[in-house]
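#lab-general

N.A. 3:47 PM
ok so I finally got the sequence cleaned up, no stray characters, all 250 residues accounted for. can someone with queue access submit it? mine expired

B.Y. 3:52 PM
send it over

N.A. 3:53 PM
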Amino acid sequence: MIIVCTMTPDFKTPSVSALVQAKLGIKNTGAIDLNAACSGFAYGLHMANGLITSGLNKKILVIGAETFSKILDYSDRSTCILFGDGGGAVMVEYDEEKPSFIESHMGTNGELANNLYCTDLSTQMFGNELAVNGFVNQNGREVYKWAVNTVPKGMTALMEKAGFDKDQVDWFVPHSANLRIIESICSRNGLPLERTIYSLEYYGNTSAASIPLSLDKGVQEGKIKPDDKLLLYGFGGGLTHAGMLVNWSI
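B.Y. 4:20 PM
back already:
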């Protein structure tokens, strides 16, 4: 299976995942796109784990990729300086003796969706509240308040379900929204920033691509090692959030 997590596909159809299949020449595979915005990569991993655990698939390519440059209003300084383009991928494989997925947690606050959205030119939602302009629109203050309150609670719930203490987490890999949000989340959960890996200083907010870009950065810098326990947490448009504890195996 190929799962591409993106909110900026090239077409309504064919899917980005179908184009990836063609480009890579992979035979006998399913292909599906998943849109959970900035939570997308975490959702994609969650889906991949479910498909593999059920026995439906043995190998799944999970990709997070965005081209935000085509949906930004460059006259809007509240958004255009924040977002970037990027992509990253992981291979999820069946391993009976040493499964990588420990626990997961997710949630949605769709009633707050009007604080972060991107319309097309025919969108009608929430009455006339939305700017129907085809660009990313964000109420940064409200998204910040939601994130710094919701994500730490989700992380706590995740670790409690797994029977984990924060000291057992080797690396925290959050969605790279902005550094103020990451610092606040770390402070509220008692996780040191020194054990947090983020990619925004190089790429900006790349939505579904930010966590795989951070994972690559951590591996390339020799930080993330086999058997490290990683806490991944995505959050953003929807408003959605999703996190998981994984045992890194490469």
